[in-house]
Amino acid sequence: MPTPWPRSNSQPKVLPPRPLRLLGGAVIAMAVALLVVLVLWSIASAAYGQPETAAPLPDVAHLLRMSAIQAALSTVLSLLVGTALAWSLNRLRFAGRNLVIALFASAIVTPGLIVAFGLLTVWGRSGWINAIANVLFHTSIDTPIFGLGGILAAHVILDAAFAARILLARLDAIPSTRLKTGQGLALTPAKRFATIDWPALRGTMPGLAAIIFLLAFTSFPIVLLLGGGPANQTLEVAIYSAVRLDFNLHGAVILALAQIGFCSIIILAASAFAPIPSTLGPSAGQRWADRGFAKAVQWTVLLACIIGFALPLLAVLAGGFSSNLPALFARPSFPSALATSLAIGTLSALLTLVLALGLGSARAATLRPLARIGLAAPAYAYLAVPAVVLALGFFLLVRTMGIEPATAGPAVVILGNALLSLPFAIATLGPPLEAVASGQGKLIRSLGLSGWQQFVRVEWPLLGREIGVVLALAFCFSLGDLGVISFFGTQDFSTLPLLLVRALGAYRTDDAAIVAAVMLVITVAAFTALPQFFARWSDAQA
Amino acid sequence: MLRLEGIRFAYAPEALPYRFDMVAQPGEISAVMGASGAGKSTLLDLIAGFLLPQAGSMTLDGVDLLPLQPEDRPVSLLFQSNTLFEHLSAENNVALGLPRPTRRKDAGPLIAAALAEVGLAGIGKQRAATLSGGQKQRVALARTLLRNKPVLLLDEPFSALDDETRVAARDLVRNLTRAHDWTTILVSHHTEDVQALATCRYRIAAGVLLPEGNTAA
Ligand SMILES: Nc1ncnc2c1ncn2[C@@H]1O[C@H](COP(=O)(O)OP(=O)(O)O)[C@@H](O)[C@H]1O
Ligand SMILES: [Mg+2]
Question: In this structure, which residue's CA is closest to atom 4 in ligand 1?
């Protein structure tokens, strides 16, 4: 009698069964999904409701067109500059190369608010350039930093550095045999780029372009500071002004729906492309250096990029530390905003880590396609809900539930920022957790390790750095957040970014400079210290 | 006594199934030979529970093994490579074999004793990644000692070792098997290993596991 074929038996049972992890992940995924549904429902139901004021509907088509043009230009420029920079960094070897690469890598956490403020310090009406022009030529130049030019400059500074770091990793990964072949053929620098480098970069470009486009399209603080009026708004800024300045909630809701719809389309398109790695090891560089003209071009590109990236940041530091720090500390608003920012950053980073570990480890514990999608999709949904839209959704939700926004403020800011960081956290922790399950699952299972032992002995020692990276990303993201706090901030509940914007609005530039400098120092410290600290700490227990 | 009777297994419905029948005695080493790709690792995966047969029975001293999950089977498994967690120290690797619960203060002496028994006293703090191939296999054997499961499955354990280390590792496996009365199954395509160790020999050919002329060692 033939035995019926038991389908599942031929699949090796190499994944240890982890019912608790699956349960925890499912609970988190459902909670995260429920929140996004509630946020969308709040916005959608508000859109169907009666307009509270007779304010005119915003010109959505115009905003979409302008945002799309700005984002497209930002993307093209960032990819061009990023490619040139990666190409230069890949070829050049010099003392301090690792430091320079780390500088550009920090672009991912540098708050847009800080870059915008740094550009103002250099190029603004009372900025460095104008001061020099005044001294030298007794004239002030028409400042180019407001409007599209300023927005593009700030976006390219951040996104080209980000792109360069990703692309550099692709170039570093070119197999040495291919380089030797090219070297043997004595390829010219141009031919070398076309035949060896470009094929290695090409696959990453669409995904990278989609991410940069999304970042530029949903840009909020940069456009708020540098936009210089309604002509160059993004939807995010338009939503913010509709709610906070025009009290036109209905208009804001319409804009939010447009924003969600457009972002969803971009994300769906992006998901078809190769994913972008979120943690990268040190860059090895290549032994085959270009010579002559190409080398001169590479040095020029590198120096220009270092100056372009570092100058606004140095301006922030210089401006901040030449101002009167004790005087600002004496005013209660600054120490309390500092404490609030640190507390919110820490709590929201911890929350992000817990959510990401819960989702990622559950996902790594199952091979079922539907379960795997169900565990990842809710977190990625937040890519389609940028900060201001999320804040608007929570704002409406809290109001519907009859809670004062001021009461809900701290909890919403922590939760909102954790949710916004979650896609990045999962992209960072997911792959190494999967690698443990697929690479060591059989050994773990044959030893009958418990889930706790698996975490303490295998995952924690191997993932210390990634855990530090997630904490650093989430901490810096929420430290720099302006979108969520601008809906929930009050006189008593304020963070550093909100303080900075208020100081700028009140023409207290010196105060703003100190706040910006403090934010930058904290960001850089967290971004450099946390991954290293956690890598060492976890490794010490191996 | 480990007994496989009429075990049938195929990776895909259309494939001809493997047919495995064997008997292995405690305190003895049974060798399974066969060309690369013959199905030797498949056999061990079936015994360890990573694969489930489509038919047949598998018992240890009369107890049915097939309903047991891999982590519940009375089996220790040594892979050819990837048998240790490379990022952990030798002693933390060995510690993973401790029965649970073991009190913290008891763990240290047990681990040290196990490392000493495989001739590696004093290397406990070293990272697994920094150990030689022979040392790694010994650390894995020390872990097996603490687990103290009645069946030991060895999947080409010596193939990465040089000749001298290999002789020492062979002696160790033989002595441990005898001292702890393990039922050891050694998979190898190295005839010398088999001649030196096996009391009982099998060969997989064309998907069928058959006994070869048995010798008394
Ligand atoms: N998971 C799997 N799915 C399908 N075929 C497999 C799988 N694992 C192994 N095989 C095939 O089964 C055969 C036996 O493999 P294996 O038991 O690893 O051989 P050996 O250990 O004797 O070299 C090989 O042809 C191999 O390709
Ligand atoms: Mg094999």
Answer: B11
pLDDT bin (cut points 50, 70, 90) of residue A4 is: very low
For residues A135 and A267, state if they share a domain: yes
B38 alpha carbon – ligand 1 mean position (Å): 8
Atom of ligand 1 nearest to the CA of A12: 1
Measured between alpha carbons, how far apart are the two ends of chain A, in Å?
53
Mutate to test the interface with B, among A447, A453, A456, A541 (most CBs of B within 10 A): A447
Q: How far apart are CA A270 and CA A262, in angstroms?
A: 12
- Nearest Cβ partner for B51 among A12, A446, A457: A12
Query: Which of A297, A319, A341 is the last residue before a domain boundary?
Result: A319
Q: Check CB contact of B10 with chain A, cutoff 8 Å.
A: yes
Task: Using pLDDT thresholds of 50, 70 and 90, give the confidence band for residue A323.
Answer: confident
pLDDT-based confidence at residue A286 (cuts at 50, 70, 90): low
Which atom of ligand 1 lies closest to the CA of B155?
21
User: Do A295 and A377 share a domain, yes or no?
Assistant: no
From chain A, pick out residues whose CB is under 8 angstroms from the CB of B72: 448
Does B92 contact A542 at a Cβ distance shorter than 8 Å? Answer: yes
A137 pLDDT band (50/70/90 cuts)?
Answer: confident
The answer to whether residue A55 is domain-embedded is: no
Residues A312 and A341 reside in one and the same domain: no
Q: Are residues A240 and A366 in the same domain?
A: no
The position carrying tokens 């120092």 is A521
Report the predicted TM-score, pTM, of the whole model to 2 decimal places.
0.88
B204 alpha carbon, closest ligand = 1
Percent above pLDDT 90 for chain A: 51
Average pLDDT, chain A: 88
Q: What is the count of residue pairs from A and B with beta carbons less than 8 Å apart?
A: 74
Residue span of the structural domain in which A526 resides: 10-50+326-542
Q: Is B83 an 8 Å CB contact of chain A?
A: yes
Q: Please state the domain count of chain A.
A: 2
Structure token pair of residue B210: 């058959």
Confidence at residue B216, expressed as pLDDT on a 0 to 100 scale = 45
DSSP per residue, chain B? -EEEEEEEE-SSTTSPPEEEEEEE-TT-EEEEE--TTSSHHHHHHHHHTSS--SEEEEEETTEE-TTS-GGGSSEEEE-SS--S-TTSBHHHHHHTTS-SS--HHHHHHHHHHHHHHTT-TT-TTSBGGGS-HHHHHHHHHHHHHHH--SEEEEESTTTTS-HHHHHHHHHHHHHHHHHHT-EEEEE-S-HHHHHHH-SEEEEEETTEEEE------
**What is the Å distance from ligand 2's center to B37 Cα?**
7
Mutate to test the pocket of ligand 1, among B18, B42, B78 (most ligand atoms within 8 A of CB): B42
> Residue A85 has which token pair?
């920079």
Rounded Cα–Cα distance for residues A402 and B197 (Å): 78
| Whole-angstrom distance, CA of residue A347 vs CA of residue A106 | 22
CATH of the domain at A221: 1.10.3720.10
Q: Does the beta carbon of B38 sit less than 6 angstroms from any atom of ligand 1? A: yes
- β-sheet with B75-78: strand ranges across: B63-64, B55-60, B2-9, B18-24, B208-211, B200-205, B29-33, B183-187, B151-155, B75-78
Q: How far apart are CA A418 and CA A32, in angstroms?
A: 11
pLDDT digits (tens, 9 = 90+) for A197-216: 999 999 889 889 998 999 99
Nearest residue (CA) to ligand 1, atom 14:
B39
| Ligand 1 atom, smallest distance to A11 CA | 1
